[in-house]
Amino acid sequence: MQAINNSLKSILQLQPAIFECDTHNSKHLHLQKGKQYRFMAENMQAVFPGLVRGKKIPHMFGKNVYRDATIKTIDEASLIPVLVAAF
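^ that's the sequence the OP posted. Answer follows.
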């Protein structure tokens, strides 16, 4: 076991953002519509690289042809202990 040190310094490096996904041109990704309050994966990866993973989403590209789109996902639940340690 290892203590979480300097968590406030790391948390302050995160840049929360408000954005809307392009659900019209990305229907195959099944993204949420409307305004989203999230962390950007690239920023999270720079601060907490272990919390960002790639997720492959298969989608139909043509008749009987499938491709994989890869998106970055954030393990937000694992960020909770870091937030608590910051207090």
